Amino acid sequence: MLMQRWKWIITGGVQGVGFRPFVYKAALHAKVTGQVLNTPEGVLIEVQGTPDRLEAFEDTFSATIPPLARIVTWDREVTSPLPGEDAFQILKSTGGHGHQVLISPDVATCDDCIADMRDPGNRRYRYAFTNCTNCGPRYTITRSIPYDRACTSMSCFPLCADCQEEYENPLDRRFHAQPNACPECGPKLWLTDRTGRTLCENDEAVRRTAALLLEGRLLAMKGLGGFHLVCDARDQEAVQELRTRKNRKDKPLAIMVADLDAALSFCVLSEAERELLTGRQRPIVLARARKDSGLAPGLSPDTAFLGVMLPYTPLHHVLFDELKRSGILPAALVMTSGNLSSDPICLGNREALRRLGSIADNFLLHDRDILIRCDDSVLRVVDEKPQFIRRARGYTPAPIDLAKDGPTVLGVGPLLKNTLCLTKGRQAFVSQHIGDLDHLEAYGFFREIRAHLQDILQVEPQAVVHDLHPDFLSTGFARESGLPCLPLQHHFAHIHAVLAENRHIGTAIGLALDGVGLGDDGTMWGGEALLVDTAKLEHRRLARFSQVMLPGGDVATREPWRLARAHLHALGIQAPGEKPWPWLQKYAAADKVVAQVLGRRINSPLSSSCGRLFDAVSAMLGLCERISYEGQAAIRLEAIQDKEEKGVYSCPVIEYDGIVELDTLELFAQVHAEWRDGERPATISRRFHLGLIDGLCRLCLHLAERCSCTTVALSGGVMQNLTLATELPRALAAQGATVLTHRELPPNDACISLGQAAYGQLVLQP
Questions:
Q1: Contacts of 99 (CB under 8 A, 6+ apart)
Q2: Range 183-200 burial, b when 16+ CB lie within 10 A, else e
Q3: So which residues are the catalytic ones?
Q4: What is the DSSP letter of 384?
Q5: The Acylphosphatase-like domain covers which part of the protein (predicted)?
Q6: Which residues, including other chains, have CB under 8 Å from residue 156's CB and lie 6 or more apart?
Q7: Where are the beta strands (DSSP E) in 29-149?
Q8: Element (H, E) at 356
Q9: What is the pLDDT of residues 249-279, one digit of tens each?
């Protein structure tokens, strides 16, 4: 039979995932000759043989693609056979600009590597940096492309003879595993006190760490994308001491446990939650905590849900194996970000000793540099589907596929929960969680990631899209970038984000249920119904929540009692009746000042925010007068609901002066009246939630008839409320709406950068 030669160019996440050895094995199996190598255009594969053998290669290739590979494009052409070729070879990578190969996210330790670490006869027994092509660090150790050892933080660890042999053997699972190492040639561990004095090293450091944790000590532990602060999750004194030192009064603390059985002893887990926990990304999963589990009661004081994750690095596995030896089963460790307040997570040893010395008693350090900070990802399950709360390790920098190809655009995100987004063709690359840009350290991280993303993608943005707010550091960065600037209102960006995720082209009614964002009329938006047409690039505000003043501006977002007072003022209620308002015991003097501020409209911008409505109801019920973390008042309000209650408050749709409004002031009036009459807060909370859902559905039905549009897109931080996230889409679908929600990004402000970049692509389309 005549010989043929096929040439393939494959793009996507195909570096550092065992792709070339997979191709090599498929070629050997099919008995074809040729070559495979990484190039700027993608992975280049050339195979030569008879037609039946080439088809056998293609069948094997298609059926056994490595689990970590993510193919974006797969182009094939027929070329002329090469005479005399007698083998299949893996060639060295070639560099260059304009590459189409993606860097893989970091991947949890695979079962084979865990088995190596637990085998006393294996040279990697209890070695805390064991990995192979199927697992280990990728993104966080990569300096530049291509993803080869010389371009990672492993470049300073020359391979020993045994590791070099594995690295060069195409049939070994560690072939071209860039972080490949062993105790002889790889990174080392050591334990220090808070001054940096070394106490012990390597395996002894792990043993001493386990002992210190069981003694109630607080440790800082260097991980994959940064440091964790760690303590025994069963020890209430240690947990409280961690909260005190970290200045984290009430915000939930995540735990890590050894395996799924341990997680089941602490949490009630659905099948979908189990799959998330045990997947290769290993995120923190918010699951319902079991009562009387033996965990410290202060881990998650405001909610019945607990953040739990399983080990994802070799060091974690070795540490939990050591804890198992102690006889305390199942072990559970608090694993929270190694930072203070909203600062970025620490990534360097000296940085951690300097910044965390007032928190940690001891430090477990190693000498493999973390090049890119990356927090743990956080997800929950809504209707058996994952919903992101924070997208970072395990998922970044995997792209989001867009509906259309387009020019490169940079979205610089908002002030809080900032992320960046760069588009490349029909893909959008959203950065890991950066944080709140009102901290200069976070702004430095923002600039680092902008430069790094642009470098590894090798793109030059043609425009930058930013928020309307002139004082955001991200806005200032955009204006100083030298690129053409496109402003986009905060909540329209929310809707563009969810439409981009769903690859929706055309018209949609967007419900932006959020905190506050500067509107194009100068007021503070946050409870908006918006018309967005991605084909015609039409933006229009269709409706809003009732407007209420924010007494003191930003102060009101930190003190929900002010918001309750503002709602009462809007209802004409200036003084309590026989039942004193819940906040008067602490804030009686301040309440008088706020009354004057509201009466004179001093520093009290108007807001239609949905998030601030939840805060006001929470304060009215005495649940939260002052927050210690964002969303606390709403979390408490949702947590107390009596799910058996069927009553629904009225939330009318009204119209005046050409403005459609969801009368959320009337909704609050019913909350106040039933609180005044002594109704249980649990009942009021449930009726409020159901009333808001009912009102939103009737609003959408009203707008759908007016706009001839049945597609409804949901976004905004309030969509993290599990009741709304579950019941609102169901109720809308029952009315015949096509409902679009976030599945690849959080609904909170972390999605803003995607919406900005997607909008910018649409504007620049020829």
A1: 39, 40, 41, 42, 145, 146, 458
A2: beebbebbbbebeeeeee
A3: 20, 38
A4: T
A5: 5-92
A6: none
A7: 33-39, 42-49, 70-79, 88-90
A8: helix 349-356
A9: 999 999 999 999 999 999 999 999 999 999 9
Of 594, 397, 428, residue with least CA distance to 502? 428
| Cα gap 464→304, rounded to integer Å | 41
Kindly report, residue by residue over 597-606, the tens digit of the pLDDT.
999 999 999 9
* Beta strand 507-518 pairing with 524-533: antiparallel
Q: How far apart are CA 346 and CA 354, in angstroms?
A: 10
pLDDT band at 495 (very low <50, low <70, confident <90, very high): very high
- DSSP readout, 551-591? TTTTHHHH-HHHHHHHHHHHTT--S--SS--TTHHHHHHHH
pLDDT in tens, 461-486: 999 999 999 999 999 999 999 999 99
- DSSP for 648-675 reads -----EEEETTEEEE-HHHHHHHHHHHH
Q: Which amino acid is at 13?
A: G
Residue 504 near residue 738 (C-beta atoms within 8 A): no
CB count in 10 Å sphere of residue 156: 10
Return d(Cα 632, Cα 557) in angstroms, integer: 11
So what's the pLDDT on residue 240? 97
Tokens 């419900």 sit at which residue? 511
Q: Where are the beta strands (DSSP E) in 300-354?
A: 305-309, 332-337
Q: Are residues 356 and 246 in contact, defined by beta-carbon separation less than 8 angstroms?
A: no
Question: How many Cβ atoms sit within 10 Å of the Cβ of residue 454?
Answer: 17
Quick: pLDDT tens for 512-537. 999 999 999 999 999 999 999 999 99
The sheet that has 42-49: what strands, in order across it?
70-79, 4-13, 42-49, 33-39, 88-90
Report pLDDT for 144.
85
Contact between residue 306 and residue 255 where contact means Cβ atoms under 8 Å apart: yes
| CA 583 to each of CA 554, 565, 579, 591: distance values in angstroms, whole numbers, following the listed order | 19, 10, 12, 8
Residues 108, 739: Cα–Cα separation, whole Å:
33
Q: What whole-number distance in Å separates Cα of residue 209 and Cα of residue 192?
A: 10
